[in-house]
Amino acid sequence: MHKRTVLYGIARLLQVMGLVMLIxxxxxxxxxxxxxxMEILLSPEFSGFWIAxxxxxxxGTLLAVIFRKARFHQTVREGFAIVTLGWIVLTFFxxxxxxxxxxxxxxxxxxxxxxxxxxxxxxxxxSGFTTTGATILTNIEAIxxxxxxxxxxxxxxxxxxxxxxxxxxxPVLGVSGYHMFKGxxxxxxxxxxxxxxAETASVxxxxxxxxxxxxxxxxxxxxxxxxxxxxxxxxxMATGGFSTRNASxxxxxxxxxxxxxxxxxxxxxxxxxxxxxxxxxxxxxxxIDREFRFYALIIGVAIxxxxxxLYTEGLPSxxxxxxxxxxxxxxxxxxxxHVEREADKVAGLYGSFKQAAFQVVSITTTTGYGxxxxxxxxxxxxxxxxxxxxxxxxAGSTGGGIKMVRxxxxxxAAFREIIRMARPRIIRPIKIGRNALEEDRVSxxxxxxxxFVGLFVVSSLxxxxxxxxxxxxxxxxxxxxxxxxxxxxxxxSIENYNWIPPGGKWLLIVNxxxxxxxxxxxxxxxxxxxxx
Length: 532
Description:
25 helices, about 65% helix, mainly alpha, single chain, two-stranded antiparallel sheet, about 525 residues
């Protein structure tokens, strides 16, 4: 492997991030018009930004100059190494604003206090870049706007891909940049839309921006100011889920806002190639795409089941709901009022349908926004939501999870093996639509499924060493591995990850990265032979 080439690629990524961080820096600066410039520069809400920008741009420019001659030596090894190591390095620099803020707020400058602040900051920004949406913040509304905007912006950058953005800005990376593009874009397909990879990256980001602008405008028409509209658009289009409110989307008592976010979460879970072709006038592209039809079917059936169960059964009693583990359980009277409010949300057919639709779309697309505490829902629906976490969005979308096309192929492969048991000599290729998949592709998908489930099982076992509740342990792992955010019990939709010990947080950080880069990209560079 050409290590100098890897360092050059990471240098370019640092330059991109350093420039992008100027945006939240301006917002942080404008929030303190009454202060003198020196006071603002030294404030913990602002100082982390300029330190991170100077560090990222200086390091990026220095490495780019030193290793400029090595930029043409990219192979598949360098491509995957740039993606994996690049995401880790960018998270390190990107977490500096939160690290300095947490350190100043905590006031503990001992090695333990510094380590704890860094772990929380790294967790929050890795959750942002990987579009997971798991948070350690206990009072989101108390965080300065500059930090909240940066937190949401990491979603938007990570959703379409930081490397993909760099390929659009610095086409020189594209000598063999396809390997980086392949290592970052979610799903088993990475078709090119244009002959040059930089043009493909530009097209994808163009579609991403168009949909983001459309949602921002609609949310502003629904009563949100520009700041909250942008932050929630970033979380929606990236299927991330970071909100500026403690109650997430449930804060907004507006059916219009809820349905706008439902629609755009659904669109964000669709392959962006389909959006591009639809905007070019190919209006039947959704109807003929087999993965999209499967995606829409799964969501439609799940919404139907959710609506039926909520409407006919309602919510379990307060005593039953209290059985679900919570790290800091409220008093009995307060919890009873909470369950009563949740029951009011699903009262009537429309209430049941709206809440079921929002949570099903949010979980399936791995967005993680919430309008209800689904941990108080019937066990049947809680289990259904956990299953949907594995499914995820479509290939080529910003959604996480296994991906719909992989689930479809695995189902077809299982059905084929059942037929082969009775008819051993039959030749039956697996088809998606009219296209027969090569056996190598089928093998790759089955291997990915095995690795995904294996990582889930092993990580869940390890997680039980850090949390006292089994449901919390396995739901936290799948929520991070599938890049969803909220799980059940101690990490449910109204809970957070702050109380989990540092060791558990680092385990979940690893799962976030593995889930976003789809396991293979990370595991490849862990082989010693790759670095020889």
